[in-house]
Write a structure and sequence with these properties.
Length: 360
């Protein structure tokens, strides 16, 4: 199965939000802290901006160490504001998910987007989507992010991390092995410090060394399954589907309209099967939603997204239709262009058993 997958990760996320909300912090080292409350300076650094990273301040170090490293500078230390970051994360991921056919929310500041259909398997078109996403996120949220594009989730994720901040890296299938070969094995998501040390003891430090290793030996050391996965990863092979990992936080469908249009009824007609499809999945998974939203892509390939929160979680297909119609009408009113693609989604999914999703 050939795919094109895009991975997006927001740069120094919590600290960048703080810089935007308080522009007077810009140009200073900004350190976002999880204060433990035990004493005024106890706790760890959540993240920091690049001005602070120059001094060796990074996620996970004790606040006391950060204060030490930044002594004599005009650094600012701030407490985390999770609700604010969550709200912005949702807005950014709404933009991302509008540009492809499948979206996977991977963490508060990153997501995977499958764009095989949206690009017709063309990597220049994929780069175009990457650029548009970056521009839209910058315009709407004043945030820079790093984007990687490749033949699967593994390659896309590594590609997004190779140029930071504000990077855009496209790895063509034919270049994938060469791209990965010189990297340390620790660059493969899933190989932690422990496995890395283990591999190093076996004389394996780089991805190309892993690729040439004896599969029998790797399977013996890591077990058949993990060993097989490791060898595959070294070759840039990863079959995992976008959106398949864990429980999805949203259900969305998007499709290309028969012809470009601004006609609400035509759009709603095209959305009929998508809405039924979403409603079926809702019933199959026995979840309810309390946010429903729509996305439109216009003839210039600009994306628009709107969503609405409802007071009580529901499984009602009619509710999706009603909200979608109202939101599509809003977007049409606010734009003068014809629309090419349209999509529907529901989110803030809750299991009927009462389990909550991440955002709650
Ligand atoms: N985070 C945290 N504690 C950690 C790591 C991360 O609280 N040990 C939070 C703060 C980050 C956010 O998660 O802003 C995203 O984590 P990333 O690893 O993506 O790091 P950043 O976005 O801060 O930086 P980068 O520019 O390297 O992506
Ligand atoms: Ca990040
Ligand atoms: Ca991240």
């Amino acid at each position: 199965m050939e795919r094109i997958v895009l991975h997006l990760d927001i740069d120094y996320f919590f600290a960048q939000v703080e810089e935007n909300d308080r522009p007077e912090y810009r140009g200073k080292p900004v350190v976002v802290c999880v204060y433990s409350g035990r004493s005024a300076e106890s706790g760890v650094v959540s993240t920091s901006n690049y001005d602070a990273r120059k001094y060796g301040v990074r996620s996970g170090i004790p606040i006391k160490n950060a204060i030490e490293k930044l002594r004599g500078t005009n650094a600012v230390f701030l407490p985390v504001r999770h609700e604010r970051y969550s709200e912005i994360s949702q807005g950014v991921m709404e933009i991302v998910s509008a540009h492809g056919e499948k979206f996977e929310y991977a963490s508060i500041d990153e997501g995977y987007l499958e764009i095989s259909q949206a690009t017709g398997m063309d990597y220049d078109a994929a780069r175009g989507i990457g650029e548009r996403l970056k521009n839209e996120i910058l315009a709407k949220f004043h945030l820079t992010c790093s984007v990687g594009i490749g033949q699967n989730k593994l390659v896309a994720k590594i590609a997004s991390e190779i140029v930071k901040p504000n990077g855009l890296t496209v790895v063509l299938p034919a270049e994938t092995e060469e791209f990965l070969a010189p990297m340390g094995v620790g660059k493969i998501p899933g190989i932690g410090a422990k496995s890395g040390q283990y591999l190093e003891k076996m004389g394996i430090r780089t991805v190309s060394e892993l690729r040439r290793a004896d599969p029998g030996m790797i399977a013996e050391a890591f077990g058949k399954r993990t060993g097989g996965w490791l060898i595959n990863a070294s070759k840039g092979i990863d079959e995992s589907e976008v959106g398949a990992e864990g429980e999805q936080k949203q259900i969305s469908r998007i499709s290309t309209l028969k012809q470009d249009t601004r006609d609400l009824q035509a759009i709603m007609e095209a959305m009929g099967p998508l809405i039924s499809d979403i409603a079926n999945e809702i019933r199959e998974r026995n979840v309810s939603f309390s946010i429903a939203g729509v996305a439109l892509i216009d003839e210039n390939l600009k994306g628009y997204a709107k969503s609405r929160t409802i007071a009580h979680p529901t499984q009602d297909e009619g509710e999706i239709r009603k909200i979608a119609e109202a939101l599509f009408a809003d977007i049409i009113r606010e734009s003068r262009f014809q629309f090419r693609r349209a999509g529907i989604k529901v989110e803030r999914l809750e299991s009927r058993k009462g389990q909550k999703t991440l955002f709650e």
